Amino acid sequence: MTVITALFWCSLFLVCYSYVGYGILLYIVIKLRRFFVKPRHTGDEPPFTPEVTLMVAAYNEEAFIRKKIANTLSLNYPAEKVQIIFVTDGSSDDTNNIIRSYPRITLLYEPERRGKTMAVNRAMKFVKTPFVVFSDANTLLNKDVLICLMRHFRDEHTGAVAGEKKIIVAEQAEAEGAGEGMYWKYESLLKKWDAELYSVMGAAGELFAIRTSLYEDIPADTILDDFMISFGINKKGYSVAYAPDAYAQETPSASLEDEYKRKVRIAAGGFQSMSRLMDLLNIFRYPKITWQYVSHRVFRWTVAPLCLLLTLLTNIIVCASGAPFIYWLILLMQVAFYGMALVGYALARKQVKSKVFYIPFYFVFMNVAVYQGFGRFLRKKQSAVWDRSQRQLTTG
C-alpha cells in the first residue's frame, strides 16, 4: 500500500505541476530575473519595416478566401515591401479562380494534394525576402500585424516570432467554443512568460514569422509543421519571441466532433514531434530550453494525461483500504470535477453554454483526445494531409 500511496501523491503532484505549478514557478523565476535583467521594450523603437513575405496555405477555402484576401491587402505595411504567396495545392473548388483575380498575389498550385508540409516546403523556394510570415487561410489578422511581428527581429538572436491566436466567442457561444477560448487565454499567458524567460515553446500555425535563412525543409509526413519549424529554429541557437499585439482571429470549431478531431490530430502530431526532438531532453546540450520544453510540452502531452487516470485509480484504492480523511476529500473533489465535466458534455451536446461546467468539460475533453492521438501515433494512422475542421460562421 505504501507504493500505491506514493504513486498517488506523485501522480497528483505531476498533474498539478503540468497545468498550474509550471506557470506559477515560471512567474516566480521571471520576477527574480527582472531584478538582474531589465526587460526590453520593443514598442519604444521606431518601426522596423524590412521586406517580408506573407504566406498562406489554403485548401478548398472558396467560402472564406475573399475575406482573407481583403484582410491581407488591407494590412498597414508598405505595399512595395510585401510579397504575398497563396499556396493551394490540391484545391478542387473555386479557390484558385478567386485568387487569380488579385494581381498582387502570387498563386502556387499543383493538382496533387500532398499536405500542408509539402506545400510550404515547395512555396519557400519562391520566397525572395529575409522574413516570412505564415498565416492560416481561415484567420483574420489585425491591421498592424506585420509591424508588430517585424519589430522583434531587431534582436539578432530572435529567429522567429509567435503571434497571438484569438478565438472569437459570441455571447451565445456553445460550451466548446467558450472552453477553447479560455484555453487559449491561458496558453497566451504562458507564452508571454516563456518568451520573457527565453523562448516561446512552439509557435501556432495561425500566425508566426521566421527568418527565411533559418528555414529547412521538414519531412513530408510531419503533422505539426509549425511546431517542428519553430523548434528547429530553437535548435539552431535562436529564440522564438512573442508578439501579443500581432494576432490572428478565428471562430471556434463548428461542433464537438470537429473540435475533437482537431485535438486528436494535434495530439498525434505532438507525439510524432516529441519522438523527433528527443535531443531537446538533453539539458547539457540545450540548457536554455530543456526545462521549458519538458514542463510546457512534454509533461502536458505525456505525463499529465496518464497521471490524471493514475491519480483517480490510486485514490480509490487507498480509500478502499481505510485511508485518512484527506484522501477521501481529494477523491470527493475528483468525483465532483469529473461529474461537472460530464454535465458540461451533456450541455454541450445540447448547444447550451454554462460557465460553471465548460471548463472541467474542456479539460477532460482535451486529455481524452490525447489518448486517442497517442493510439494513432503508435499505429501511424494520422495522415499529414489534414482534413479542414469546420468553423462557426461569423456575421459581417
Automatic annotation (TrEMBL):
Molecular-function GO terms, alphabetical: glycosyltransferase activity
UniProt keyword terms in alphabetical order: Glycosyltransferase, Membrane, Transferase, Transmembrane, Transmembrane helix
SUPFAM superfamilies: Nucleotide-diphospho-sugar transferases (SSF53448)
Residues that span the membrane, as ranges: 6-30, 298-318, 324-347, 356-374
Database matches in Pfam families: Glyco_tranf_2_3
Top-rank lineage group of the source organism: Bacteria
Family annotation (CDD domains): CESA_like_1
Protein family according to the UniProt entry: Belongs to the glycosyltransferase 2 family.
Protein name, per record: Glycosyltransferase, catalytic subunit of cellulose synthase and poly-beta-1,6-N-acetylglucosamine synthase
